[in-house]
Amino acid sequence: xxxxxxxxxxHQRDSLQRQFPRxxxxxxxxxxxxxxxxxxxxxxDGQLVVKAGGASDHHIAREIRAHENWTGPWxxxxxxxxxxxxxxxxxxxxxxxxxxxxxxxxxxxxDPDTYEQxxxxxxxxxxxxxxxxxxxxxxxxxxxxxxxxxxxRVEPDLVEQLRAMIRxxxxxxxxxxxxxxxxHTRNWLIDSDNTLRVIDFGRADLRHAAEDFERLAAxxxxxxxxxxxxxxxxxxxxxxxxxxxxRQRIRAxxxxxxxxxxxxxxxxxxxxxxxxxxxxxx
Length: 282
What we know:
Layout: H1 10-19, E1 24-28, E2 37-43, E3 46-52, H2 59-69, H3 72-76, E4 83-87, E5 92-96, E6 101-102, H4 112-126, E7 131-133, H5 136-149, H6 156-168, E8 174-179, E9 188-190, E10 196-198, E11 205-207, H7 214-218, H8 220-223, H9 227-235, H10 242-263, H11 266-281
Antiparallel strand pairs: 1-2, 2-3, 3-5, 4-5, 6-9, 7-8, 8-11, 9-10
């Protein structure tokens, strides 16, 4: 047994080996900032990806839910992986392995066609389902306040300013759709014919559609010329209503600065602080 398998719990190894009695570990693709183990394996069913969560993980359940309910159109068109096995209790999911290279830091990251493809795919994903939620804005505001209750390096005066601002916001009824939750080049694969495919549904959930614009707005839209217009051309519209978009961006900046500090990703933490400074200066 590969040493990488010992990063899985006994329950996870048992669940995996019952479903796939014979396999070889090709690579450990774990990110190592969080407690998720990601393995590339070869089995009689083909090459697969195993994702296993740690004790406090809640991303695997989200990923399983996404594959059960929302990835169907992308799987049918060959743009997302098919799920082979899942075990919520063990916090384990196994999907097919998709060919390609991450768009992040690849030449395709500067190609407008990449963003147009991403916009088209996201529009299909969002269009599957919608629900009106009267309580959504209150919940996400409270979550932002809880982030500020934890350990972080946001200046105390700014924390108080943010608390007062968030508590003052209106909480209108929100239309929620299936969202990927981490939609940017780190979770897009580009294959040899420049086709874009989607990975990592660990943050998938029902949210406002504009929330899938957030990562791009903080990164690629700022650094890649033409990317935002190409993405909007593919998506077909712009769901970013100014007041709701401002609230979303503040909440995202708070979560970024606090979460990144807590896991020791200091470059990402700096991005969160930059986002806050830019938004509040405007």
